[in-house]
Write a structure and sequence with these properties.
Order of helices and strands of chain A: EEEHEEEHHHEHEHEEH
Helix content of chain B: over 70%
CATH superfamily of the largest domain in chain B: MetI-like
Order of helices and strands of chain B: HHHHHHHHHHH
Shape of chain B: elongated
Number of strands of chain A: 10
Mean pLDDT of chain A: 84
CATH class of the largest domain in chain B: Mainly Alpha
Oligomer: heterodimer
Number of strands of chain B: 0
Distance between the termini of chain B: 18 Å
Largest sheet of chain B: none
CATH architecture of the largest domain in chain B: Orthogonal Bundle
Number of helices of chain A: 7
Strand content of chain A: 15-25%
Chain lengths: 285, 291
Amino acid sequence: MAAVLQPKSNRRATQGAISIDNVVKIYDPDGAAVMAVDHCSLEISAGEICMIVGPSGCGKTTLLNAIAGFHEITSGRILLDGEVLCSTEKPKAEPGSDRIVVFQNGALFPWKTNLENVAFGPIMQGAMSKAEAIEKALDMMADAGLGGVEHNFPGEVSSGMRRRVEIVRALMNDPKVLLLDEPYRALDSLTKSVMHEALLEIYYKNKVTIFFITHDLEEAIFLGHKVAIMTTRPCKPKKILEVDIPHPRDYSVLTSRRFRELMEETNDAVHEEALKAFAAGEKEG
Amino acid sequence: MAIRKKALVSSSLWRGVVSIAVFLVLWEIGSLSKFWIKWESFEWLRNALTGIDLKPVYLPWIGAVPAPTEVLHAWAGVIGDAGYWQSWYMSFFRVMSGFVTAMLVGIPFGLLLAVSRTAYGVGFPVFEVLRPIPPLAWVPASIIFWPTQELSIAFVTFLGAFYTIVINVVGGARSIDVRYFQAAQSMGSSQWDIFRRIILPGTLPSIMVGSSVGMGITWNVVVAAEMISGGGSQDAGSSGGGLGFFIWNSYVGGSYEQVVVGMISIGIAGYVSSELLRAVGARVTPWMRLR
């Protein structure tokens, strides 16, 4: 496996820098204002894997939805390569193919085959003819180890396969940023380890910026250049960790001394927030 | 795997055959019981029951129902009769025309209610007030309104399927996961693309469910409407009135075996329609067979 993980291209990503600047999000259901995100600032450089770690319901997904353009922000601004996506004046970004989301429970269209799903984006954007899109989709799927399931429906393959198909579908759009919302949450730990290496492999070939939400610290340190540990609601960075383990990485990293040191360094911060979230949850319940 | 599947199919077929056979035998025995059980032997029970209540009690008696063999005999009598097949044709034609019209009107109407807030606000309240009115309550109004009997029966049949199809389309379209819309939007789909590639296929399974329920109601309605309105075309007499009128006419004429022939004919016709619909459903929603 390690041999496959060698980077095929050394191209450095020059696009996809995200700058989150003092973003506030207040939900206002029935007049009871709930602050989900509190003056959150975070810089993500082009081509970086940034892992967002925080307890469930802390507001991580709110941030992701703001970048993707699915929801409005209350104030602050988010920039992509220096261009304003959304701000206090224009609270909702336009969804676009430069920022593609891979959803928590998957959002492959069940009525399309895996191949039709993968080829969907370029056809929609008019970037390729149908034949070209199909050809490229077949290439990319074969490359990602998905040869053989092209003509199956998503419901016919394992959940691990489905995630991989969805990531390939996202990459077909040639995005600057990949937004992953706990994509491996529902997978068992063995499948997860396979998926991690597969993701890195895809990343080394494509070098997109990855904004990856998780609450698994081990996953975060293993994959990320940068790990942002978020506070429980309202959400903002509590601690930002630069992971100095060089890429390309493989699973042997998990047993290295540096990895364990980084785990120790951050474990307390994560645990502290988890406890707070738990206590807050008890009050709500 | 394939062998096991094959065995399963044939064993369920086997069970079906046995269950129908047992049903027919029990029915035959029950029906023939009039020859070996005398009504008078139950006089004491009747007297006892009458004693509690003041009116005389009549007990239902399966001996009053024609036996399967008699029904079969009556069937053999009408099977070569063009009038009997004309009844089949009339009912089938009415069901299909009402049902297809209900789909042609109901699916676009349901989709419109689902995608447009304005349409929903304006259209749904009226729809919801009209929906609880049973189709059969429309029969008199329908006869008054439509110029011919045939059209009034077709209209009532149409109503039977229409409401169910619309409700299912609206519900189906509204329950499509928001993530599909978000994903499609991110990948650059226009509003029309989203309608054609997300809403339409996403609603198809609900359309099929609504259709199969609607098809059942359509058969209920057509038979009752034929009975009430006297079969539609008076000049055709007993031969042109559809299966509902066939039953009613047989009843009035005292031919109880033919009543049962008509009933079973409707059962078979309904079964055939459902199977047709299922085959269509499997073809247009191939991804659903995985569930």
